[in-house]
UniProtKB/TrEMBL annotation:
NCBIfam families according to UniProt: PRK06170.1
Molecular function via GO: amidase activity
Record Pfam families: Amidase
Annotated EC: 3.5.1.4
Residue span, Amidase domain: 24-464
Species the sequence originates in: Kutzneria viridogrisea
InterPro entries for this protein: Amidase_CS, Amidase_dom, AS_sf, FAAH2
Top EC class, one word: hydrolase
Protein name listed in UniProt: Amidase
Keywords linked to the UniProt accession: Hydrolase
Length: 483
């Protein structure tokens, strides 16, 4: 039997039943990677010797009667996580030889849960792209169509899962970096509530792995089913043992509902700042129809929805003000000059990005205060709704575009070009207020490319969008292996 596309849940059951060993699963996964990854280039740092040793150890542990949630299951890890003995570069050539001495907290949790780590997956330079290519490791291709991107920055992990290279992966998300690759590759991913999962050791080299509370950015699970997302989130969730973990344990509330017909869902497919392409619009509508057919209450409009234009502007300000915080002084002064030259009438997202790059601390505090007002607005919305269904990006996976200046790139939406980074507004809808969001497959484009949508839920009620994802998987289907 071939095991490569079985779910983690199915593999765990087969391991418990003695139908297969972890050593056999690991050997099969390695053989598939060695055969197929020459074309995909998802696994940028293989760790096969240690994986085989970990698999043998998992089989021995099971024989001793040990029970752990991921015992013996092959997984991958995004390159940006520290793993002792392996390089962590974030795709930056100047750090190609940086090798951390300790595992990131999430890598430690994977290993403690019994997972077998096959290796690390590719990322874009500095994790700052919607694609996954860099000078050190090259370009990762979409398994569905190799001249297209698998997304970024967790594109290597998404491509690995779609290709059968392990049952699970862990990634991170600041600008849709879990959700966009899931959408582009036809898999599942979950952006947890901000602060739910500890991030220590998911840090750019050569910075020390400190227990810092990141703004906007989270770490989270990727899988080929919704139930596997929940399995992995339960391993990842929890505060850092060096800080809040000294006093707090995680006790996520259960999903609000167990039946599809009990959910109250707001469906969005239009954004005031960028159109939604026809293929993605069809995916959103397919999910909306499935919800209605299952008896859920589905609405398309509500006065409770926070203003989408202001939300996008706030997200842009918070994201880009943080992204340049460590720019060299000369580069920063150039940005100040350019921002000063903007017309006061220019309220485009491009202008917002440039202004945010030179924010004062006072500017940031004002933006953060407005974010808190949006968070309160979302609390009021989620008193009336259980989830929001909306796009992740306006299009399916787009062709590789390696223009070294991403501000010159354009995204084609049904034949009309728009600024490249404007496509982030949908991802930012959940990121800016720190809400959980689950990416699910929602069909195929006319060209046969995967299309996904995101299910946004209430803060720290991650099990609600995850449960809805599971119910929709039963209703409309889920992952399909690339043909």
């Amino acid at each position: 039997m071939e095991w490569s596309f079985q779910t983690a849940e199915e593999l765990a059951a087969a391991l418990r039943a003695g139908d297969v060993t972890s050593a056999e699963l690991t050997d099969e996964a390695i053989a598939r990677i060695e055969r197929d990854d020459k074309v995909i280039n998802a696994i940028c740092v293989p760790d096969f010797d240690r994986a085989r040793a970990a698999a043998r150890g998992a089989d021995q542990a099971r024989a001793r009667g040990e029970v752990r949630p991921l015992l013996g299951i092959p997984v991958t890890v995004k390159e940006s996580y520290n793993m002792a003995g392996l390089p962590t570069t974030w795709g930056m050539p100047q750090h190609r030889d940086y090798v951390p001495a300790e595992d990131a907290v999430q890598v430690s949790r994977l290993k403690a849960a019994g997972a077998v780590v096959l290796g690390k997956t590719n990322v874009p330079l500095g994790l700052q792209d919607i694609q996954s290519f860099n000078e050190i490791y090259g370009t990762t291709n979409n398994p569905w169509e190799h001249d297209r991107t698998p997304g970024g920055s967790s594109g290597g992990s998404a491509a690995a899962l779609a290709s059968g290279f392990g049952a699970l992966s862990i990634g991170s998300d600041l600008a849709g970096s879990l959700r966009t690759p899931a959408h582009f590759c036809g898999i599942y991913a979950h952006k947890p509530t901000l602060g739910l999962a500890a991030t220590r050791g998911m840090v750019a080299p050569p910075a020390p792995a400190l227990p810092v509370d990141l703004d906007l950015a989270v770490v989270g699970p990727m899988a080929r089913t919704a139930r596997d997302l929940t399995l992995l989130l339960d391993v990842m969730a929890g505060p850092d043992p060096l800080t809040l973990g000294k006093a707090h344990n995680v006790a996520l509330p259960p999903a609000r509902h167990e039946r599809l017909g009990d959910f109250r869902v707001l469906v969005l497919n239009e954004h005031p700042l960028i159109p939604t392409g026809s293929a993605v619009r069809a995916g959103v509508n397919r999910v909306a129809d499935a919800l209605a057919d299952g008896g859920a209450r589905v609405e398309r409009h509500t006065p409770l929805l926070p203003d989408l234009t202001e939300a996008a502007m706030l997200y842009t300000q918070l994201q880009f003000s943080g992204s340049v915080a460590r720019f060299p002084v000369d580069s920063y002064e150039q940005l100040v000059t350019r921002a000063a030259g903007l017309s006061a009438d220019d309220q485009s997202l491009d202008a917002a990005r440039l202004r945010a790059m030179v924010f004062s601390h006072r500017d940031w505090i004002e933006a953060n205060n407005r974010r808190e007002l949006h968070r309160h607005g979302w609390r009021q919305l989620f008193a009336e709704f259980d989830a929001v269904v909306c796009p992740i990006t306006p299009t399916p996976a787009f062709p590789h575009d390696h223009n070294p200046n991403p501000l010159e790139r354009r995204i084609d939406i049904d034949g009309v070009e728009y600024p490249y980074f404007d496509q982030l507004v949908w991802a930012g809808l959940a990121t800016m207020p720190g809400l959980p969001a689950t990416a699910i497959p929602a069909g195929r484009s006319p060209e046969g490319l995967p299309v996904g949508v995101q299910l946004i839920g209430p803060m720290f009620e991650d099990r609600t969008p995850l449960r809805l994802a599971e119910l929709l998987e039963q209703k409309i289907g889920g992952f399909q292996a690339p043909r």
